[in-house]
UniProtKB/TrEMBL annotation:
Residues 51-266 form the tRNA(Ile)-lysidine/2-thiocytidine synthase N-terminal domain. It comes from the Eukaryota. Its EC number is 6.3.4.19. This is tRNA(Ile)-lysidine synthetase. Keywords: ATP-binding, Ligase, Nucleotide-binding, tRNA processing. CDD domains: TilS_N. It comes from Suillus placidus. One of its GO terms (biological process) is tRNA processing. It catalyses: cytidine(34) in tRNA(Ile2) + L-lysine + ATP = lysidine(34) in tRNA(Ile2) + AMP + diphosphate + H(+).
């Protein structure tokens, strides 16, 4: 009697998977919906959200697109349509133009979406057109280049279709591969937990506005979700067969010499089938070397046993333990941040020193420090640079100093973050830095640590120092163009930390007049930092004259517009969230 094969994914089962991927604060509203329609939808308790699906034409994304479309179609016809969940789906496929099958796979993606009645958009990567590099050629490492280009155009596709979330078809087998790939890069056990079911897009991997991978503050309200992350590949294939879904297999997925992920997939398949590993001989050195690193790192894991020769079932269990551990650590860090954080000046974080020893677990300490760094860093939120590139020695130095050295001097250990000793009192002014060293505490005072932006130059020479274009931002042309279009407002991200919004209907008359003639007079409007915390201020600069300040952020978080109408707001937008 033949064995029972893998079961297709049931719709009720998929609904539970889908709901576990919901962003923490609920689904964002479709940005293409007008204000009137938005108000009506809320009055009538109806939600209208668009969800994008990354569609490669392969079995994983085809299965996901089918299940999501079927689920949301069914919910629209039931009372559950009144719940706050997406009500429409858009299919996004990326044509990399890197292989002979690129066109046919893009065509299959479009055909599958059309067969399901789903709106579809094919996104071509314009290699060689800024910000994209020249097309990679055979022999060049293309995995990271292609990934960055792919994500860049997907985000653009989300913006064009009004989707604030995108679903990818990553599954449990992909999760194992991701965990092993991260081990090859020297990740911690947190990284070995793999991909999250739901995470923010973040500000991107780029560092320059308009550059490849850069999305800025818009990425803080965009989400990536992976509903199939706990499902094995064989069940996805069974679902495609059950519902007669057409798909194509990307032939490059089975070529181990192209990417490390392919090599890991081939290695696990050979082990699962009990075949000889000689097929992996002759791999490029950077790939074969990474496979060796994986074996060493997997053996050193503390939270679970990860036996690469124990088969996929054992690896799935190990990665599931690590993923669950990651969620527990996230929750514990959130709890400690709420209890340890003291009232802090804008853009900083003051942590009570005497309460830090309550965090005993080394992994929780690590995650705690990374969360704080991400919050105060000037590097793009969500990037590795904001985490100090997760250099173990640097992070451990921070942990050792914070947990073991009350009254230690100020220091930095990466991530663009300055750590300073502080003395906090609810009734006295905050003391920070050298004035805390050797000082006896007075009644009501306590030792603390302040995390803040690492200064580029001392704050007392900010007005005279030559600063980079990231800190001395000329917004003249952007203001002039926005005004010429009769825009209501303009948003500018400053230092990857503050979102400065200009109400153009309230802009002071003197600035309006200056902007009308800026090309003739050479005047310009700029955002610059002030105070030791590098808060933003808006100034008018005239040749041969001192800058005139029109708006500044004050220590109470309010905006001083120097007698003018409240035409500027300055919001610190970095997040303490885990995702």
């Amino acid at each position: 009697m033949a064995g029972i094969g893998p079961a297709p994914i049931l719709f009720n089962e998929f609904f539970q998977m889908f709901m576990r991927c919901m962003p923490p604060n609920g689904w964002p509203v479709n940005s293409k919906i007008g204000v009137f329609f938005f108000i009506v939808s809320h009055v009538c308790n109806l939600a209208h959200f668009t969800l994008a699906v990354g569609n490669s034409g392969g079995p994983d994304s085809t299965c996901l697109l089918f299940l999501l479309n079927k689920l949301l179609t069914d919910l629209r016809s039931k009372a559950m349509a009144r719940q706050s969940i997406p009500t429409s789906v858009v299919s996004l496929s990326v044509n990399h133009n890197l292989q002979e099958t690129s066109q046919s796979m893009a065509a299959r993606s479009a055909a599958n979406a059309a067969a399901m009645g789903v709106e579809h958009l094919t996104l071509d990567i314009p290699w060689g057109t800024p910000p994209f590099s020249a097309k990679p050629v055979a022999g060049q490492p293309m995995e990271q280049v292609a990934r960055e280009a792919r994500y860049h155009v997907i985000f653009d596709g989300m913006a064009r279709t009004g989707a604030h979330s995108v679903a990818f078809g990553h599954h449990a087998d992909d999760q194992v591969e991701t965990s092993l790939m991260r081990l090859a890069r020297g990740t911690t056990e947190l990284g070995a937990g793999g991909m999250r079911r739901c995470r923010r897009w973040g500000m991107g991997t780029g560092d320059l506005e308009g550059g490849l991978g850069w999305v800025g503050h818009h990425g803080l309200n965009r989400w990536i979700m992976r509903p199939l992350l706990e499902v094995r590949k064989d069940r996805i294939l069974a679902t495609c067969e059950e519902h007669q879904l057409d798909y194509v297999n990307d032939p490059t997925n089975f070529q181990p010499e192209i990417t490390l992920r392919n090599a890991i997939r081939q290695m696990l398949t050979l082990q699962e089938e009990g075949k000889d590993m000689s097929a992996l001989s002759g791999l490029p050195q950077h790939i074969s070397g990474s496979l060796d690193k994986i074996k060493i790192a997997a053996a050193d894991l503390q939270e679970t046993t990860m036996d690469l020769e124990g088969g996929l079932h054992q690896l799935h269990g190990a990665v599931k333990v690590l993923s669950s551990r990651l969620e527990d650590v996230d929750n514990e860090v959130t709890f400690h941040l709420k209890n340890l954080t003291l009232p802090s000046p804008p853009s900083t974080l003051i942590l009570s020193s005497h309460a830090l020893p309550t965090i005993v677990d080394p992994t929780v300490r690590l995650a705690f420090v990374l969360r704080v760094m991400r919050y105060v860093s000037f590097h793009p939120w969500g990037s590795l640079r904001a985490d100090g590139n997760r250099r173990r020695t640097s992070i451990q130095r921070i942990i050792d100093t914070l947990w073991q050295s009350d009254g230690a001097p100020s220091f930095t250990a990466g991530g663009g973050v300055l750590w300073q000793p502080a003395i906090f009192s609810a009734k006295r002014r905050l003391r920070v830095g050298t004035q805390c060293l050797g000082r006896q505490l007075q009644p009501g005072e306590r030792f603390a640590w302040m995390a803040s932006r690492l200064p580029a130059v001392p704050y007392y020479i900010l007005d005279t120092a030559t600063l980079s274009s990231k800190l001395d931002v000329d917004i003249t042309e952007r203001l002039a163009i926005a005004m010429s279009r009769d825009d209501d407002s303009l948003e500018v991200l400053f230092d990857c930390r503050f979102l400065v919004r200009f109400d153009l209907s309230q802009i002071p008359e003197k600035l309006v007049g200056a902007l009308r003639k800026y090309q003739e007079t050479g005047v310009n409007v700029r955002i610059k930092p002030h105070t030791k915390y590098y808060w933003p201020k808006v100034v008018l600069r005239k040749p041969s004259y001192p800058d005139t300040t029109y708006a500044t952020l004050m220590d109470d978080g309010q905006i001083d517009t120097f007698g003018h109408a409240p035409w500027v707001t300055m919001e610190y937008i970095r997040l303490l969230d885990a995702t």
